[in-house]
Batch of 2 targets.
Target 1
Amino acid sequence: MISVEDAQTRLLALAAPLSSETVPLRAAANRWLAAPVAARRDQPPFDASAMDGYAVAGDPAAGDSFQVVGEAGAGHGFAGSVGPGQAVRIFTGAPVPAGTSRVVIQEDVDRQGDRITLRVAADSGRNIRPQGADFAAGARLAPRWLRPADLALLAAMNVAQVPVARRPVVAFIATGDELVMPGEDPGPDQIIASNSFALEAMARAAGAETRLLPIARDEDAALRAVFALADGADVIVTIGGASVGDHDLVARTAGDLGLVPAFHKVAMRPGKPLLAGRLGASVLLGLPGNPVSAIITGQLFLLPLLRALQGDPAPLPAPQAAILTEPLPANGPRAHYMRARLAGDRITPFAQQDSALLTILSEASALLIRPASDGQRQPGETVPYLPF
Ligand SMILES: Nc1nc2c(c(=O)[nH]1)N[C@H]1C(S)=C(S)[C@@H](COP(=O)(O)OP(=O)(O)OC[C@H]3O[C@@H](n4cnc5c(N)ncnc54)[C@H](O)[C@@H]3O)O[C@H]1N2
Ligand code: MOO
């Protein structure tokens, strides 16, 4: 059995980056910016007022008085120039008129007709946002996951079309005679297929386009037929049938179909039966069937794979540190990803860690990482975890 880190490295080695495409700005949310884009203008494009008040020159003192000679608003500046003893009524976002060098806020001014008098000396701030203070024309936004703030930044840069990585297509195949879809009528020996729904949501949030294929019965022919439906997918994710039982067919059937294996079985808990390899033009990721195992291996393997396919050079989740609240016995030879609750900087693993318990997983906010063969841990010690 190989370590989690080895398995992740081998899987990511299968991730040849996808091509890019250009999409309208609004369609770029949550996608990977595939190439640097340059600002097409300065922002602000002119020295702009940061406050509502009066634009004047110099460093006026309390009692100084000015004649108001015009107005500058956002979207319509003051065309003339402003001389000594003159002021322009100005509003936030307006271009600062030629000849002025600061904005006195209106709260500090008494106005009578077209004259203003300063109640206090102008303060040290000029209340002006200089041209290009946010960014200058030509400034670049480097490849990254585009968050909402990045969309606003691209818009301000006047970038309407955005180069992003093509969405990876992920096909999900749940396997097992016991499975029916939610809303169907399960037979007495059947359960509801649940894992695909978590995994599909996870993949979509990571930018993938998803296909939920029909459940494959536990026979070679049925599994082959569903594999055929996955044709063209960048990633095929099977769920279940990865272990050693007589009905665990994924490795065998995929092998007969030409799977070039990268690994099968990883020293982790949950998730030991995980397998991966290249199947034709697709990457095959065979997840274990237990719900917690499937979702955690999805988190640790499927998500990084999807990020890497889209070009993210650092696709792996970064462990954080928290303070343990309870003693933990020494860990065995498999890295253990314990379902845990995080409160501030303190982490408490759930007492029950069975890999079939979706209620516990749903309550969990962290996966406490016990490295393989880690010794006993005491309350107060710092331990690694992954946010969940
Ligand atoms: N003799 C051994 N038995 C098992 C081993 C082992 O090493 N030796 N490994 C165990 C571990 S660890 C895991 S994890 C499971 C995973 O096995 P499979 O990947 O073959 O999964 P299945 O047997 O098909 O299913 C396991 C469990 O999960 C339920 N399941 C399956 N698919 C779904 C789904 N889409 N939604 C909800 N639940 C699902 C299934 O009904 C089973 O209860 O093997 C252990 N056995
Ligand atoms: O290692 Mo399995 O994934 O615990 O249930």
Note: The chain has four domains: 4-17+166-309, 20-43+134-165, 48-129, 320-387.
Target 2
Amino acid sequence: MVYQDNVIAPDEAAAWHAHLLDSPIWRQQRRVMYERELDVPRLTAHFAADDPGLPWPLGEALAQACAATGASFNSIGLNLYRDEHDSVAMHNDRLGDLVDGCPIALISLGETRRMHIRSKKHLAPRRLDLDLAPGSLLLMSWETQTHYDHGIPKQTHPLGPRISLAFRTRKPA
Ligand SMILES: O=C(O)CCC(=O)C(=O)O
Ligand SMILES: [Fe+2]
């Protein structure tokens, strides 16, 4: 796992964040848990990288993710954490839909949020806390997903919105 600060310049990251926050792309997903249907505690959006209607600035963001990592991606997932109450539970990204061995890159915009990273081995449940700053890029190898879980926990102090852009390489349908 490699964390790099300032991959996107501060002014650019701020402009991307403000624009995406106001874009009509966000959806509220529902998920069945414990036999009840609940709102996913964040808003999401998804685009194929070759979507001719790809909203600005996702084309630029994709190009920068490729340039910074040397990888190529064909899928862009977006998460909007509206405030400190939004979160994503500890999980590993589903590898079944992804091309074997391809990494996942996460660009962060807006408020800094803390990520928890935890080994899946219960005998060694050491947790790493990583603050994901705006303009940063976190590169997670494919293998990372088999050894570690990651999540963005809720916080108790007031926080403004954060957007993450997740670049992945999906298998052709
Ligand atoms: O928002 C983040 O940085 C993490 C998002 C995530 O884990 C995911 O989309 O699978
Ligand atoms: Fe994830």
Note: The chain has a mean pLDDT of 94.
